[in-house]
Design a protein that fits this description.
Helix content is 17%, strand content 29%. With 515 residues, the protein is α+β, with helices and mostly antiparallel strands. The strands form eight sheets. Strands 19, 20, 21, 22, 23, 26, 27 and 28 form an eight-stranded mixed beta sheet that branches. The protein has a five-stranded mixed beta barrel with strand order 14-15-16-18-17.
Length: 515
């Protein structure tokens, strides 16, 4: 028996109501009757499990509401398959226009239980299962075919939960249970629109891949020479200028000192030779160079090497290995080391290469006459012990002063030692200072002031006369009188010993005092 869902009239045959024109409902199955195309069709209800239907959704207690029956008659669908969408707290039933939960099967004439027609997996949402003999009965339940799942689509859009999309209307069709807007947040249908939420893990992976590709591109481009470099070559200096920090563009590059004008390199060598003289400046000794010097030296205070330019004089180290305090105002060449301490440049002498002989004071001083048979060395030592030195005659005026003093004293028969000598291998006579070192100019040269004061053919450097006992070396100076005139002469350093008969008791020396 069939019944019209609108007017309630009952019919035994036919599929549509003659008055309303809508599909009739089979009172036995509560399903809409499909049009008959020459084949008998039976409508078999789809197998559903009550456990799969969420509470409060679909049919309740197996009953169908009148609204569902009207929707099935109008649209040919299963009244129980209408979709309900939750919007806020209100739920609106949406009829399923594409797929019904009731499946139609065509049954040829003479077949009691025809094989149900297989639907595509996209329409049914599940894969068809193999039917057994018991499942062919009209009251048996049928399992909806499972939809073939796409892993890539699920990774992006999430699981569809048996939902298909109607290509004509764009609405989402549910073939299984309704989830009320997909509580999992994968896909939601609201007002006929579809909202898609992408998988955040896949997005993160995609972003990382893109960043890696970009980094590889930059690395490869950096390894390859730039084409613009070949078109317009850039000099190395221009490249450095471009890379420099603008704040440091005016800072000059640190370079070593310019040594082109250095005259004394005391930094790279611990020993240098310098020429000049020593001056006493109020108790402080200074070494004065012959000319200004540019000295490359090390500053022990600043801990760095530098060039001191136009240096005229330096301090003498009091702890020098070879002190120069006895060479004041004398020209010399000395060796040693030079360094700097703050603003003070110091010279420590370790050797004396050459020193100008000390010049005797040409003035007339005080004199003491001593008559004693002794050697020249005894007279030299005794004069120093008396606070003076053996007399040094440095000018014609002084010479005449001493001669007058001797004449007035009646010392014309005495041979007096003077403070002059020569080297044992040399031929030049010099005055000597208190250290028995040569000083002044050569006394027997033709340029000397006293060249005319020497006795004839003197100095002879040796004596081979009748009064000598063999050949006697003459290496010291004396003053003697011949026929009333006084002369300079070279003699033995031991007159009384070498000429005892001639000069015994006739030997003496003159002590000079400057104060």
């Amino acid at each position: 028996m069939k019944k019209c869902p609108l007017c309630g009239r009952e019919f035994e045959n036919g599929t549509k109501c003659t008055s309303c024109g809508v599909f009739l409902i089979d009172t036995e199955t509560n399903q809409a009757v499909s049009p008959d195309n020459g084949k008998k069709k039976r409508i078999r209800p789809e197998k559903k499990k009550k456990s799969e239907e969420p509470a409060g959704e679909g049919r309740k207690g197996g009953s169908v509401s009148p609204d569902d029956l009207i929707s099935q008659a109008l649209f040919g669908g299963n009244p129980a398959s209408g979709k309900k969408e939750e919007t806020g707290q209100n739920k609106t039933a949406v009829p399923d226009q594409e797929e019904s939960t009731v499946r139609e099967t065509e049954e040829p004439e003479g077949s009691e239980y025809p094989e149900p027609e297989k639907k595509h997996a996209d329409e049914a949402g599940t894969e068809p299962e193999k039917k057994s003999e018991d499942e062919k009965r009209p009251d048996s339940k049928e399992t909806a075919p499972q939809e073939e799942k796409d892993p890539f689509a699920e990774s992006i859009f999430g699981k569809t939960d048996g939902r298909n999309t109607n290509p004509d209307s764009g609405d989402t069709v549910y073939s299984g249970k309704k989830t009320g807007g997909e509580k999992n947040g994968k896909k939601e249908k609201t007002g006929g629109k579809i909202t898609i939420t992408l998988n955040p893990v896949l997005i993160a992976v995609a972003v990382v891949i893109i960043l890696v590709i970009v980094a590889v591109i930059f690395i490869v481009r950096g390894m390859n020479p730039k084409q613009e470099d070949t078109a317009a070559p850039v000099s190395q200096e221009d490249t450095i200028d471009q890379m420099e920090d603008p704040d440091q563009a005016d800072v000059p590059e640190e370079t070593g000192p310019d040594l082109s004008d250095v005259t004394i390199n005391a930094c790279d060598s611990d020993y240098v030779e310098v020429s000049g003289h020593v001056e006493d400046r109020g108790g402080t000794l200074r070494f004065v160079f012959d000319s200004p010097q540019n000295i490359y030296l090390y500053d022990t205070y600043a801990q760095k090497a530098e060039v001191a330019e136009n240096v005229t004089d330096v301090s003498l180290d009091p702890a020098s290995y070879y002190p120069l305090d006895g060479y004041v105002d004398r020209q010399m060449t000395a060796g040693g080391s030079i360094w700097k301490e703050g603003t003070n440049i110091i010279f420590s002498s370790s050797s004396l290469i050459y020193a100008e002989p000390e010049q005797d004071d040409p003035g007339i001083h005080q004199y003491q006459i001593v008559v004693e048979d002794c050697t020249w060395y005894d007279a030299f030592t005794r004069s120093i012990n008396q606070g003076g030195y053996l007399a040094r005659i440095s000018s014609p005026e002084e010479y005449q002063y001493i001669v007058d003093m001797l004449n007035s004293g009646g010392y014309t028969n005495i041979h007096f030692y003077l403070g002059g000598r020569r080297d044992d291998t040399g031929v030049d006579y010099y005055w000597v200072n208190e250290q028995n070192e040569f000083m002044g100019d050569c006394l027997n040269s033709s340029a000397s002031w006293c060249s005319s004061y020497w006795y004839q053919n003197e100095p002879s450097f040796r004596d081979t006369g009748s009064d000598a006992n063999g050949e006697i070396a003459e290496n010291v100076m004396n003053l003697f009188c011949v026929s009333g005139s006084w002369y300079l002469n070279d003699s033995s350093d031991n007159l009384a010993g070498n000429y005892p008969d001639l000069l015994s008791g006739k030997v003496g020396y003159i002590i000079e005092y400057e104060e």
